[in-house]
Amino acid sequence: MTATHRIAASSVIAAVCAASLAGCATGTPRQEAPDPQKPTPAQAPKSAVRLIGDGSTAYTGAQPHLPRPERLRPGQKPPQFVVFSWDGAGEDSQKLFSHFRKVAKDNNATMTYFLSGVYMLPDDKRDRYRPPQHSPGRSDIGFNDRRGIAATAKQLRLAWLEGNEIGTHFNGHFCGSGGGVGEWSVEDWKDEISQAKQFVKTWKTNTGLRDASPLPFDYDKELIGARTPCLEGQRNFMKAARDLGFRYDTSGVNDQVWPKKKQGLWDVSMQLVPFPGHSFEQLTMDYNFMVNQSGTKTQGNPAMHDFWGDQMRDGLLKGFSRAYHGNRAPLIIGNHFESWNGGTYMRAVEEVIETVCTKEEVRCVSFRQLVDWLDAQDPKTLEKLRTLQVGQAPKEGWASFLSGRPAPAPKGVPGPPAARG
C-alpha cells in the first residue's frame, strides 16, 4: 500500500469510533505524495549536528522557539491556552501538513503533531512491523512509500525547528475487539511504543534515502506524550507511558476544566464543547463532528458541507469563549489531515486558529509547552484553578482569587518578583 492509502477506510473502525466518542483516522484514499524539494542547509540548526544511529535523527541542541515557562504572579489572570493537535500527521498530495505549518506561523501558534510510526516505514518493509496481537506486517492504516516518507520527514524537520512538538499516534491504529488497543497489556504498549520510535530512528535505512537530512531531534527525548487510537486502551497505555518517562496523555474525554495528573501523567484530554443546534455537547475533534453529521460516510451530502464546517467552527469558538471569559481552562482540540466532507473541517479549524490565536492573553501552544507551564506553577494555584467549574469566572475577580502567597518556584523557573519595601 502506498501513500495513496495511508489512512484506510474501514466501516468497522468507524462504527467503533462513533460509538465510543473516539477520534480515529479512517479516511478516504489519497493520491501519491509530492516529490519533496531538496533540503537546504538553512533548514538545519546553526549548532553542531551529532548524528544518532544511522543518521535518521540527530542531536542539534535545544529546540528553537520554545518560550520559557513562567510562574503566575499573585493575583495574575492565567493566559488562555489553546492546543491544536493532529493525529497521524503526514504529508501527501493534499499538503495539509505544510499548509497548517504556515497557518500556525502566520498566527503566532505552535502545535503538536502525533506521528504514526508506520508513516515512516515503506510498504515493501512492512514485515518489520510486528504489532501486538496481530500478524507481522498488519496495519489498519497501511504504510507509506519512499516519496511520502521523504515529504513527511521534511515537514517534521521544519515543524520541530519552528517550535512545534512531535508526539506519537503509535503504528497500526487497531480499534475495537480482536486485538484492538483497548485489549493490549502494558507490555504490548511498551512494545508498540518501542517500534514507533524505531521506525522514526531508522527511516533512512528502511527507505535507502541515506543522503536526506536527518530529523533534528533525539526522538527518545522528544517523545513525551501521545493520543491512543480511537481513544481506547488508555489505562494500560498510561502505565506503560509512565514507566517510559512520558509526561502527558491526551486520550480521554474531559470537561473544560483545569488539568490534573492521572497515574503520574498530565491528563490533557480533549474536551466537550457546545454543539450548535443540539442539546448535547461534542468532543473537540473533527472526526467526531463528522460522525454526528454524516455518519460513517466521509463524503456526505455536498449541500451540507458548508453548514457542517460552520457547526464545528462555531462549536469550538463557543468552547473557547466559555473558557476565555470564564475559568481560563486550556482548550484542547484534535484533528486529522483529511478532506472529509469536502475539506470543510480543515476550513473550520483554520478559521478558529485565525480567530483565537491572535487575541490578547491567548497562547496557542503545543502540549509540551502547556505541560512545561503547568509544571512551573505553584501546585496550590493549580488546585485553586481546578475549583472553577466549566465557564465559571471567579466572582471576586482574578486579582482576589489568586492573591495568596505562592510557594517557592521550582529550580530554574522564574518566580514572581520580590515585594518591595
From TrEMBL:
SUPFAM superfamilies: Glycoside hydrolase/deacetylase. GO terms for biological process: carbohydrate metabolic process. It comes from Streptomyces qaidamensis. The keyword Signal applies. This is Lipoprotein. Keywords: Signal. Residues 27-79, 125-144, 399-421 are annotated as: Disordered. InterPro entries: CE4, Glyco_hydro/deAcase_b/a-brl. Residues 1-25 form the signal peptide. Residues 407-421 have a biased composition (Pro residues). The keyword Transmembrane helix does not apply. PROSITE patterns: PROKAR_LIPOPROTEIN.
